[in-house]
Amino acid sequence: MPIRLLSSEVSSQIAAGEVVERPASVVKELTENALDAGAKNISISIVDAGRSLIEVADDGHGIPADELALAAARHATSKLVQSEDLFHISTLGFRGEALASIGSVSNMTISSRVSSAREGARLKVDGGISGKVEKVGAPVGTVLRVENLFYNVPARLKFLKTDVTERRAIDALVTRYALAYPNVRFKVNDGGQSTLQTAGDGDRRSILAALYGVDVAKQMLEVMDMEDGLSLTGFISPTSLTRSNRKEITFFVNGRWVQEFSLTTALLQAYHTLLMVGRYPLTALFLEIAPEDVDVNVHPTKAEVRFKSQDRIFSFVQRAARRALLAYTPVASVSPQLWGSRPASTGRGEVGIDWSVAHDESLDDNPQTIHQGVPTEENRPISTVDGQKSFPTPVPLLRLIGQIGSTYIVAEGPDGLYLIDQHAAHERVLFEKLMAQHDKKSIPSQALLSPEVVTLPPQSAKMLNSQLPFLNHFGFEVEEFGTNTFQVRAMPALFAGGDPSSALRALVEDFEEDEAPLQAEVEAKLAARVCKRLAVKGGQTLTSEEQRALLNDLEVCNSPRTCPHGRPTMIHLSVDTLERQFGRKGPR
Q1: Which of 117, 252, 270, 420 has a CA-to-CA distance to 15 between 20 and 30 Å?
Q2: Which CATH class is domain 8-201?
Q3: pLDDT tens string 142-154
Q4: pTM to 2 decimal places
Q5: CATH code 3.30.1540.20 for 348-575
């Protein structure tokens, strides 16, 4: 085939594919433009997760009428003049591609007015074709309206994710910028409903409270460190406040949100030996560095950067975070209830759990079994100490011996010794009881003496809000209680004494971006999530009565050998194995 130049329409759409990947990309570019324009108020409205409409209005400097058409042209910018300026970039945008790229794959309308003009101007761009600039009445600032995103690129439109996922991406993005620019008032309106609103008073902790709740905001540790022209400010979580993934580790470099592996690694090194395996902190950290020491022109979306002295940056971030952790984190105290003052079990078949001393279950996690579905048949082999495998059979009657390490229960059976993981075992017990009640359509609820108020980040709140009917069906009584806030009035009686906040967070915390959150989850898998979070934890001391009740409950389970996520609940040391280990049956 002969070599030919691409038409301007095709080349524009190809270039747009590098900058505009999804609706959140549009919101990012327009928000950054508003911040560069000195806006103090930014209002974002979306309809149909951004497919039908994205509108970003700001009160920044505005665009002069005679420059409006040029603003929508490719490689037109006010932020660079010569190539040397690339090494001194202090603005968020600089390539001059955002508006042109967005306009080439949508119906875009720009309305703007500068303070020195008596009237504003408006320009429409449809599929990369600009119309005429019109005079209109408009406040100082810019309103940029993007409609029918990807209408002329059906392949890109087809591969967008679900509305819930796209909304979560937008909410997560605006949340980050609200933390980075606390002096700017952000407002997000989704389909006529306000999902985020900040005061713009410069108080980052108040923004944390609006996003994660007052309790989380109070716990966050402030970081303020300076060293040889470097500055690191923001917040990190104490070791007691963690998540199961890295999605809430946020870094900004010179006001720009970046995804830089070295910064994340430096932060995690600061937590080395302080966090359990598979747990990650919540962070919002803001690094200030001389513009000439960082290269931001390495990725089309400007999400990656390169540092001139990466080792120096790595060491600085690690030391600053570690200093904050050691300065603020108190020495852990031991609850007197750990010494056996807990009330006795309430009766046969129920484990009297002291929820106040429940530790984090992350040590019990097996990352290879999470999100693999809930087993419907017990067809997994159980490993024995001598390496042999046998398929599960009903658990025999067991005689309690005691507890080891506040994590494992030791029991004697007809053919040797059994070591039971108390967390996995209690997961299985709770799961089977809950599903049995569900099958009978009779899940009893117990009203809370004092309703629990739970605040979630906007992206998690939307996911949970769509599933309130399901939760109510499962024995929870949950209702909206304000923006991104829910009130738990009742829980399944089976979980009486459990933490309502922990139960709700278990449903939304671990989902990855490309999952179909909750909608594609079977009821059993959701039930398994809640049971995992509310089961007795490893490291929690149980009384003899509680240990015996747990064994009795496990014996009557239909699938006692694994937890609902497929992890073994017990290890069997047969008499034959013990005799071989002690040399009673020849050499080992």
Answers
A1: 252
A2: alpha beta
A3: 999 999 999 988 8
A4: 0.64
A5: yes
